[in-house]
Amino acid sequence: MVRRLFRILDLFLERAFAAVVAVAFSQFFAFIQQYRQRLGGHLAEAQRNYDAVAANTREAAAETRTLLLETLGARVAELQHAYDAIFAAPVLLKPVVFVANVDAEVARGTLGDFAPQIPLDLASLFYAAVGLVLASVFYRLGANGLFGTRRAARRR
After folding, report:
1. What is the CA radius of gyration of the chain?
2. Nearest Cα to 116, choosing from 18, 25, 50, 15?
3. What is the C-alpha separation between 39 and 101, in angstroms, rounded?
């Protein structure tokens, strides 16, 4: 009787853990989408600043203007590269490309304003399914390790 109750509890915990991880995985794709929108805003702002400095030659000395344009140009190029890389990445590689190109400042801002979504697109549902499978596998590995050592000790 007690063994059956533990088995039911174990199955419940596995499914609950898998569901939580699946939802988290689906939200990661939503986070990448919101990050990309914010990144696009940063890119537009950086490009506008660069264009404003490039057009205004009277206010700054030539050396200061050149240094400012180099700094702003580097920022525009960095943001453009990250935006293009994430936008062009295949669905399966988006998380990897995102992590490789993440801008910490933009990511913190996105996380602060992140609004969870109900994912109905194919990519989010795919990531939810991957999360579900991975969570079940890791839960089983952990449960078998935890309970397997007890069983092995009882057999001796």
Report:
1. 24
2. 25
3. 11
Q: Helix or strand or coil: residue 144? A: helix
Pick from 22, 39, 19, 33: which is nearest to 114 by CA?
33
pLDDT value of position 140: 86
Alpha carbon 127 to chain centroid, angstroms: 11
Q: Which pLDDT tens digit goes with each residue over 49-91?
A: 888 888 876 655 777 778 888 988 999 999 999 999 999 999 8
- Please tell me the pTM assigned to this model: 0.65
Number of helices (H) and strands (E) in the chain: give both, helices first.
5, 0
DSSP 10-57: HHHHHHHHHHHHHHHHHHHHHHHHHHHHHHHHHHHHHHHHHHHHHH--
CB 129 within 8 A of CB 3: no
CB 22 within 8 A of CB 132: yes
